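Entry for the shared binder. Reason: the reviewer on the internal report wants the predicted structure included alongside the sequence.
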Amino acid sequence: MESASKAFAALPKEKLRHACIGVGGMGGHDLQNFKSHPNVEIVALCDVDENILQKAAELVPGARLYTDWRELLKKEKNKIDSVNVTVPDHNHFIIAMSAIKAGKHVYCQKPMCHDVAEVRVLTQAAIKAGVITQLGTQIASSIGDRTGVQWIKEGIIGKVKHAYLCSNRSGIAGYRLEGPRPVQGQEVPSGLHWDNWIGTAPMRPYAPSIYHPAIWRAWQDFGTGWSGDIGCHIFDAVWKGLGMTSPISVVAEVQKSWKDSPDRRADTWPQGNHITWMFPGNDRTASKTLPVEWFDGEFYPPEEVRALYPGEKYPEEAAMLIGTEGALLIPHGGTPVLLPESKFKDHKRPDLEERNHYHHFVDACLGGPKTESHFAQTGPMTEAILLGTVAIRVPDTVLEWDAVNMKFPNYPDAEKYLRRTYRKGWQVDGFS
């Protein structure tokens, strides 16, 4: 059966029969991008909110509609080739894993999963099944990020000594949550299938504007916080350019008001984090180890690092690599800058074509080149990022990481944050 699924997924086709799982919020953006590819036929749509689903259905007349992704995969098993998973983080693994087991190509929004253990298993499953995969790091396909990757690989700034990553955007929807969980819930609105939305997470009473559709990312049950969500974007070019592997250790400094509140620490993510990973060095780094730091919320890259940027204001979201021969700034969604500019003013940019991240996935499914952000590559990166969310829960503690055995040898108590216990009825065979 497995070989048959693998062969089915690999068959070249003139049209890709696609199903969108999650069509609200970012799901609407994903739907529009898949719909814009001339060789995609969107045959099915799924969302737990019937109101959102009906609005999406107006864009794709004739698409079959579902409020339960399990029913979609069962009924559409022989009618679809691929799916996109654009739902809250806590249900990424169970949906993507089920689709891969069915031999379907998978585009999954970032982060790939909610937990480190889920990422490891999903990555291995995708490789074994031979399906096409793509993580939803759309900027990874941009000329800017691809230029950054190429410059790192070419060694333009010499050997890299240190990397500083940041996301200091203000007012990001989905994170602004200060108080504890609501004591009482409210009646679930008509058309919202709340049990399906909760999925693998512990059952929580419905609360408007707290979970669905707005602020789920701030809750540990459902999201992975600021670093987990945005980290995949900022890390990507650095990870690929340097050919990084699993970190040696990780430690986190967090927002003091969150750290001092037992209620918030039990339920929510802090709105300010400073995470430091130590990675093994390689032939592109200046030493045997490479420190990589992440800053968000109230934590900012060091002043001397920001001062390297000649512009009026340091980019809110960016990666800065310090090398032995200069520095490289990769603004999120922007144009990379070699520093100091006077030294590199004559350095030519690579001639790269524009690329749509979604279309690249579709083309790969139809027999084209490998995707930019396939799981074999982005899985280990996501693991590293989510190790940061483990460190956040035990702040100010250096966690030594044994990647092979998925253990913290010096602090075993933190291993309970590597995977969750799924709600009864939502377990995954062989995993939970």
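Summary line for the report: Residues 1-12 have pLDDT under 50 and may be disordered.
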